[in-house]
Design goal:
By secondary structure, the chain is an all-alpha fold. The chain folds into 2 domains: 17-60, Orthogonal Bundle (Arc Repressor Mutant, subunit A); 70-182. Helix content is 70%, strand content 0%. It has helices at 15-35, 41-48, 52-58, 62-83, 88-101, 103-113, 122-141, 151-167, 172-182. The longest helix is centred in the middle third of the chain and has 22 residues, at 62-83. It is elongated. The termini are far apart.
Length: 186
């Protein structure tokens, strides 16, 4: 008599496998920040204290590793927007600080995506848009932000901020001061 097999529920990764994955992503981010696109899987494995097979098992392609690093960065920005930002100005300043500290990661993301696009995608973008919309609404209710400011405007501003940081074409903090002055209600 043959036993009927029941489909097994989706298994969660073992705790040690998840820790290794997280360590690989954090190590990759740190190395990308310092050395940019020169970093290879073997170096990440060595620095993370795991085998190169572990890196490839979690991230079979460079693209998948870069996307995981980008997702982690966007998750941290989202957490800041939801929990720590006291308004749009503090959010944009935080984004500037992250971009400034992670220039190498931004360059790696752009190279992997084949463009100058380093913004969030998919659900990460949707969640970030919700958080930014809340910051905008809060500042508008307080009377410190123009009622015409939109989430699209903030994406345009962060894109320009990213360009200022990436190209070192000026002081990004000064850029933000000018932009925020222009967003005050008239």
């Amino acid at each position: 008599m043959a036993l009927l097999s029941t489909p097994s529920p989706a298994r969660r990764p073992r705790a040690d496998a998840e820790r290794n994955r997280q360590r690989v992503v954090e190590t990759a981010r740190a190395l990308f920040a310092v050395r940019g696109d020169e970093v290879q899987h073997a170096e990440i494995a060595r620095e993370a204290g795991v085998g190169v097979g572990t890196v490839y098992r979690h991230f079979p392609t460079r693209q998948s590793l870069v996307e995981a690093a980008a997702e982690q960065r966007f998750a941290e920005i989202l957490a800041f927007a939801r929990e720590l930002a006291d308004g749009l100005a503090s959010y944009l300043e935080h984004v500037g600080e992250v971009l400034d500290a992670d220039r190498g990661l931004s360059a790696v993301i752009e190279a992997a995506r084949g463009s100058t696009e380093s913004e969030p995608r998919g659900q990460a973008r949707a969640h970030l848009e919700e958080a930014v919309a809340e910051l905008i609404a809060r500042d508008q209710r307080a009377g410190i932000l123009s009622p015409t400011c939109t989430v699209s405007d903030v994406y345009m501003i962060t894109g320009a901020l990213s360009a200022v940081v990436r190209t070192r074409s000026g002081d990004w903090r000064r850029f933000l001061t000018i932009v925020l002055e222009g967003l005050r209600p008239r």
